[in-house]
């Protein structure tokens, strides 16, 4: 399989880090470029229109700094980074289609039972909806960056 673009969503978690290791190894072996993306969810509107996150509003400059620090585990793998806005699964699937990604490599927290029911699964939705292959990587996974 040859690939030109591998999409790698990140939420800055160790799950995303594990996926990035796999994506880097795949990109290196296929001669592909990584498109590393972070999805910002739009704020929720409550009651009379006031905005509420439940936590302090994320600082855009800090998110940009964090995304810039997410880099392939090999210096010889080309990459690009983007911040997009939307519901995570929808935004990832839409971007993959827009850039004609050959593959999506993403982390999954591996929740089951009540945790999965309450939190949902972005990875599961992406697998169901994406028009390209999706490789999901569990947090405990480790791959040598060769």
Task: Supply the key terms.
146 residues; alpha/beta; Rossmann fold; five-stranded parallel beta sheet; two-stranded antiparallel sheet; 5 helices; 7 strands; 25% strand; disordered C terminus
Verbal overview:
The chain has 146 residues and is of the alpha/beta class. It has one domain: Rossmann fold (3-Layer(aba) Sandwich). It is built from five helices and seven strands. The strands form two sheets. The protein has a five-stranded parallel sheet with strand order 5-2-1-6-7, sandwiched between helices. The protein has a two-stranded antiparallel sheet with strand order 3-4. Strand 1, helix 1 and strand 2 form a beta-alpha-beta unit. The protein is globular, with a radius of gyration of 16 Å.
Query: If classified by CATH, what would the architecture be?
Result: 3-Layer(aba) Sandwich
Question: CATH superfamily assignment?
Answer: HUPs
Instruction: Indicate the overall shape.
Output: globular
By CATH, the topology is Rossmann fold
Compose a concise summary of this entry.
The protein has 146 residues and is of the alpha/beta class. It is built from five helices and seven strands; from the N terminus they run βαβββαβαβααβ.
């Amino acid at each position: 399989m040859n690939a030109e673009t591998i999409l790698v969503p990140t939420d800055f978690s160790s799950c995303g880090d594990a996926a990035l290791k796999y994506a880097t190894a795949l990109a290196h072996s296929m001669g592909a470029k990584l498109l590393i993306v972070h999805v910002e969810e739009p704020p929720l509107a409550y009651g009379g229109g006031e905005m509420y996150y439940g936590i302090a509003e994320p600082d855009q400059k800090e998110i940009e700094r964090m995304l810039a620090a997410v880099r392939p585990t090999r210096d010889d793998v080309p990459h690009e980074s983007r911040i997009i806005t939307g519901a995570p699964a929808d935004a990832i699937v839409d971007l993959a289609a827009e850039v004609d990604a050959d593959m999506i490599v993403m982390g999954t927290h591996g929740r089951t039972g009540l945790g999965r029911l309450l939190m949902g699964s972005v990875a599961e939705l992406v697998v169901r909806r994406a028009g390209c292959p999706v490789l999901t990587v569990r947090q405990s996974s480790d791959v040598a960056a060769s």
